[in-house]
């Protein structure tokens, strides 16, 4: 395997819009907006791809624009949208079926935009009445799990009962074990679906990176040439693996997030980018 090396001007197509590639916390990384403008001026089409399901595409656009990065909703592909597309266009969920959501507003907004019926639980402890009322429900066609900052025993108990029905589809917006914020790692969406996997013995179909279900959804919507695309990200096990397994023309890692130069250069590493940079703005020289 060829060792990755530093590069200053690869051909870009895909970008990951999180707090490790473009911003950290609520602060835009140095010259990030300038770098994106430079790429657009070179005629590169950008797509912001993220596993974060807590925000819809509209909310992400507002966040990016608030940071000084102009973009349209059509340039954003989040795992909440990927999940909604999969349910409506691949599963073609029947109109009389609903989706039970463990997650946040980003998922609900994208499901609503696709005309998919859904419901979720608010916060609260399980009650004696819940033990009596929770059970398999033929009206629930999908259980969809994403990152949920208010995950509870009650939500997991309800989802478990629905998943006892083998006809209920088990989906996850992504199965990231952790997510980075405020300079630390915290439990990711995978930590939400993992207890259900343990309970049921079922593995969810993941609609986020590195699952190729997400790549297929992107290609289905945008009809792009994979060999003319480059995946840019900070995480080897999701971003870079996503690009490699998707057969993209190139992969670029940046060292402003989860993965380190030591990991990239480690002897025997199995998932490696074609090139890496300390920061995205190093493209500018």
From TrEMBL:
Annotated TM spans: none
GO terms under cellular component: cytoplasm
Cofactor: binding details: Divalent metal ions. Mg(2+) is the most effective.
Enzyme Commission code(s) on record: 3.1.3.41
Catalytic activity: 4-nitrophenyl phosphate + H2O = 4-nitrophenol + phosphate + H(+)
UniProt source species: Tuber magnatum (white Piedmont truffle)
InterPro entries for the chain: HAD-like_sf, HAD-SF_hydro_IIA, HAD_sf, PGP_euk
Protein residues bound to substrate: 209
GO molecular function: alkaline phosphatase activity; metal ion binding; phosphoglycolate phosphatase activity
Cofactors named for this entry: Mg(2+)
Active-site feature positions: 19
Domain of life where this protein originates: Eukaryota
Protein name: 4-nitrophenylphosphatase
Annotated Mg(2+) binding sites: 234
Keywords, alphabetical: Hydrolase, Magnesium, Metal-binding
Pfam family, one: Hydrolase_6
Keyword Flavoprotein set for record: no
